[in-house]
Write a structure and sequence with these properties.
Structural class: mainly alpha
Number of helices: 12
Shape: rod-shaped
Radius of gyration: 67 Å
Helix content: over 70%
Strand order of the largest sheet: 1-2
Order of helices and strands: EHEHHHHHHHHHHH
Distance between the termini: 233 Å
Keywords: Coiled coil
Protein name: Putative viral a-type inclusion protein repeat domain-containing protein
Largest sheet: 2 strands, antiparallel
Length: about 1000
């Protein structure tokens, strides 16, 4: 080795190649922190390569570059941005709490209070929005601070040369911890964003559901309003129908009174005419019988005069009785007219009272309509407020959508940052692997160089010339070691400074996080306060709703009470009118029956007495005639007897013919009346069937329209109602069958009584004919019998005949009265049953109307409660859970209430329709019963009239016979005077001439 050759210490540092982009300043500092190494290079070493390397190394120099990259701060700055985005989204969600639509209140005070509370809520909402804006400003300021700190970290001074492995490892660990923290924060942000999205989706679904429920509730409300309108129309139609029926009953009552008065007048006229005819007939018959029964003796004049006087006295008594009867009839007519006037006045007073009640009810109805109109106005005002709240909800939804868009943008930015981080991590790993390979290679090269230098030093230590150089080199080595220690110290100081700066940035980050947490806590506190205010508002609203409910229920109860009172008073007035009309009709019928019976009794008694007197006079005349002319006048007496028998036979034939004619007339009248009644009944049945069919069709159409949305579970109830309807129709059929049976029984009883009367009358006539024949034969055979015996027999015969006739009359009257009482009792029982059914139906209608009103009120309450909880709340977990619970409760209660109300309303509608049908059927049956009762009363009156006519005809026949007997008596008296004159002449003349005159 030459002296030029020496040892040279060269400081090498492997600097990494500069990249255009570095992942982070920490990575750059770690890459630049390669420690300086001492290298001994011989000037004239055995390896020229080493010298070349040593020559090249100092040329390289100690160059450490730290390049600032623009993308280094994105990882740290993105995290607060995401946090701020989430906070702003949460704040935006909390800034506008859900508003609840208040249901309509019925009072203006409640409306004012609700408006005041809404204004307070609006002010609170504005305050919370201002606080949220301030918190957003704080968050943005904290984000700016974090960005500044990250910039400071990125702008940190470059790493000092000669850092050791421990510092590099610490930096790598810190970098890994920062990456893990960043990754955890990114994952937390992603979880929060996904949770916010899920909550947003749930709230949107809930909002759609509530909108659908709102539409369903509006449709249900419209349906209930339509049902209320239909029920009101049905009530008005029922009132109108009831008024028409009342007017018809009043018209029928007046018509019946007029018909009764006309019938009474006609009956009086016919009675007076028949009485006069009977008197004239009796006088004629009596004259004829007297003329036929005159004898030739002079003693008959005195008897005839006595008989005439007695007959005139009897006629006077009969005329007096007729006058008394006419006076009593006039008194009865005046009493009846007074009674009818009193009843008409009473009915007019009752009608006026009913009209006053109706006017009061109309006034109440007008007030109720006014209150309903005011409630409608309030409802419209509340609907306007609800629409404004809906607009606010739409605005909140728009803000929510904007927040969602910002969240999606933040998520996209986070995804981009993650991709950049992945690429930077890959680059860092690649650089670290290259750096490790280079460092291993450099260490091996250094080891080789040191071994070479040590070998050379060991080989050169023995030479003295190199000792001086060694000392120089050792001094240089000491100097270099000192500089190395200084560099290490400066590097440690720089690391400490970097650590202090990182600690300050982490402390600032922690303070920013604490500020963010405090802002979130303040927002949560504001949300809690807002929730408390909402709860208080809901409680106040519930109290107002309860007060409104109580007011509406009290008003409804008062209206229902008034309606019930009106119905009860109206039904009581109708019942009173019906009972009074029935009582007056019954009393008039009884009075007519009594007067008719008295008149018939008086006429029968008079006719019987006159007949007895005529028979007695006739017997006396016959006895005197027989006793006077027993010898000479036998032929004349026989001729007179023959004439009398012939006349009696002709009279009997005429009487039988008249009876037959009367029977034929009665039969024809009865047949025509039966035909008319059957025709009327058939017409009524057809009319009722047609009306019932039309009503049934209309009711079926209404039921089909109203029950189109019912469930299958109501089929059992419909079947039960069908069974009840069938039972009611069966009861109606049974009542009709009973009525037809009663009609048949009445007709059969009438026919039987007529037959019995005809048979008894024919038997009595036959008996009379036989008895008269027997008496004539006995008179012929017993010429010597006394006049007293004949008179006694005639009187007994006449008494027996009159007794038989009287018994037959009594039997017929009792049978008719029993039948009439039976039919009347049956009709009264049927009427009582119909009235009870009608009252029961009215009670059921009232109960159903009350239940329907309660159900409608409950439905309105449920709708109001559901409207109060319709708007969605901020998608927070606690609020969302509370909203879900409340929504489930309200849905359950609403479904139950709607199902119950629908079932009850359909059932009430069905029952109301059934009750209406039953009521119409009952009213029709009542009208039919009334018509049948009127027809039966008319038939009974006609029967009484026919019987009266037949009796008057008998009286007329008796009076005709009496008049005929009187005329015969006058003729016989004239003949007797002629005979007396002839006898006087015969005493003077010859007996032969006398006999010749007698023969002539």
């Amino acid at each position: 080795m030459s002296d030029a050759e020496g040892f040279e210490v060269v400081q090498h540092e492997e600097a990494p190649a500069e990249k255009p982009q570095s992942p982070s300043p920490a990575a750059a500092a770690a890459a630049a922190a390669a420690p300086p190494v001492k290298k001994l290079v011989s000037a004239n070493g055995p390896k020229p390569a080493g010298s070349a390397t040593a020559a090249k190394k100092p040329a390289t120099g100690t160059t450490t570059t730290a390049v600032r990259r623009p993308g280094t701060t994105s990882s740290t700055a993105t995290k607060p941005t995401a946090n701020s985005t989430r906070t702003s989204a949460a704040g935006g969600g909390l800034s506008k709490p859900p508003t609840l639509a208040r249901p309509p209140s019925t009072s203006s005070a409640a409306a004012a209070e609700s408006a005041k509370e809404i204004e307070e809520l609006k002010t609170k909402l504005a305050d919370s929005e201002t606080e949220i804006t301030t918190l957003k400003a704080q968050i943005s300021s904290s984000e700016e601070k974090i960005a500044e700190l990250t910039e400071k970290i990125s702008a940190a001074p470059p790493a000092v040369e000669g850092t050791d492995d421990s510092a590099r490892k610490e930096l790598a660990d810190e970098l890994d911890s920062i990456k893990e923290k960043h990754k955890a924060e990114v994952e937390a942000l992603e979880a929060q964003i996904s949770e916010a999205r899920s909550k947003l989706q749930q709230s949107e679904e809930q909002l759609e559901k509530q909108r659908a429920e709102l539409s369903e509730l509006t449709t249900a409300k419209e349906a209930t309003d339509a049902e209320i309108v239909s029920l009101r129309e049905a009530l008005e139609s029922a009132k109108a129908e009831h008024d028409t029926r009342l007017s018809e009953t009043e018209a029928n009552l007046t018509k019946a009174t007029e018909e009764h008065a006309s019938k009474l007048e006609a009956l009086q006229q016919t009675l007076s005419e028949q009485h006069k005819d009977a008197l004239t007939a009796l006088e004629k018959k009596h004259a004829e019988e007297l003329a036929l029964g005159k004898a030739a003796s002079g003693d008959n004049e005195k008897a005839l005069a006595d008989q005439k006087a007695s007959h005139e006295a009897a006629l006077g008594e009969l005329q007096a009785k007729i006058d008394d009867l006419t006076a009593s009839q006039a008194a009865l007519e005046t009493a009846h007219e007074a009674k009818v006037s009193d009843e008409s006045a009473a009915t007019a007073a009752q009608i006026s009272a009913l009209e006053a009640d109706i006017a009061d009810l109309k006034a109440k109805l007008e007030t109720a309509e006014k209150s309903a109109s005011s409630a409608r106005d309030e409802l419209e005002a509340k609907t306007g407020e609800f629409r404004s709240f809906e607009e606010r909800v739409r605005n909140m939804e728009a803000q929510l959508k904007s927040a969602q868009e910002t969240a999606s943008k933040a998520q996209e930015a986070i995804a981009k940052l993650e991709e950049e981080m992945k690429t930077k991590d890959a680059e860092i790993e690649k650089l670290q692997s290259e750096h490790a390979a280079i460092e291993d290679k450099h260490n091996q090269h250094l080891k080789q160089i040191t071994t070479d230098y040590e070998n050379e030093i060991n080989s050169l230590q023995g030479e003295a010339m190199y000792k001086r150089k060694y000392e120089e080199l050792e001094a240089k080595h000491i100097e270099l070691s000192e500089t190395h220690t200084k560099a290490v110290e400066t590097h440690i100081e720089a690391l400490e400074e970097i650590k202090g700066q990182h600690g300050s940035t982490s402390a600032a980050l922690e303070t920013a996080k604490a500020e963010h947490a405090s802002a979130v806590a303040s927002l949560e506190a504001k949300a809690d306060e807002h929730q408390k205010a909402l709860d208080a508002l809901l409680a106040n609203h519930a109290m107002e709703l309860e007060a409104a409910k109580s007011g509406v229920s009290a008003e409804r109860e008062s209206l229902l009470g008034d309606l019930e009172g009106l119905k009860s008073s109206h039904s009581q007035q109708i019942e009173i009118l019906k009972t009074e009309a029935e009582a007056t009709l019954a009393k008039e019928l009884e009075g007519l029956k009594a007067s008719h019976a008295e008149i018939m009794d008086a006429l029968n008694e008079k006719s019987a007495s006159e007949k007895q007197q005529l028979l007695a006079a006739h017997a006396d005349e016959l006895a005197t005639a027989k006793s006077a002319s027993q010898g000479d006048q036998a032929a004349q007496l026989a001729q007179l007897e023959q004439e009398l028998n012939a006349k009696h036979a002709t009279e009997l034939q005429s009487m039988s013919k008249q009876l037959q004619d009367l029977e034929n007339e009665l039969n024809t009248k009865h047949a025509t009346e039966v035909q008319n009644l059957s025709k009327q009944l058939h017409d009524l049945e057809t009319e009722l069937n047609s009306k019932h069919a039309t009503e049934l069709e209309s009711q079926i159409e209404q039921v089909k329209k109203g029950l189109s949305a019912q469930h299958a579970t109501e089929l059992d109830e419909l079947k039960k109602e069908l069974e009840t309807a069938q039972s009611s129709t069966e009861e109606l059929a049974s009542l009709r069958a009973r009525l037809s049976e009663m009609d048949e029984h009445h007709a059969a009883s009438l026919e039987a009584t007529k037959r019995e009367l005809q048979a008894s009358h024919s038997a009595e006539i036959e008996k009379l004919v036989a008895s008269n024949a027997e008496t004539i034969e006995r008179l012929k055979s017993e010429h010597a019998g006394g006049a007293e015996d004949v008179k006694y027999e005639m009187e007994t015969l006449k008494e027996s005949h009159e007794k038989a006739i009287w018994e037959l009359k009594n039997q017929h009257a009792s049978a008719l009265e029993s039948q009439l009482t039976q039919s009347k009792s049956e009709l009264e029982n049927a009427l009582v049953a119909v009235k009870s059914q009608l009252a029961k139906a009215e009670d059921e209608i009232n109960d159903l109307s009350g239940k329907l009103a309660n159900e409608k009120f409950a439905r309105i309450q449920a709708e109001a409660d559901l409207d109060a909880n319709r708007q969605p709340k901020t998608p927070d977990t606690a609020e969302l859970d509370a909203l879900r619970e409340e929504l489930g409760k309200y849905k359950k209660a609403y479904d139950e209430a709607m199902a119950a109300t629908e079932a009850k309303s359909t059932k009430a509608a069905d029952q109301l329709e059934a009750v209406k049908g039953d009521l119409e059927m009952i009213t029709k049956e009542l009208e039919a019963h009334k018509l049948e009762a009127a027809a039966k009363a008319k038939t009974a009156e006609a029967d009484y009239k026919d019987m009266h006519e037949s009796m008057t005809e008998l009286v007329n026949e008796a009076t005709g016979r009496a008049e005929k007997a009187e005329s015969q008596f006058a003729e016989l008296l004239a003949q007797l005077k002629v005979r007396e004159a002839e006898l006087a002449e015969a005493k003077v003349c010859r007996p032969q001439d006398a006999y010749l005159r007698l023969d002539h």
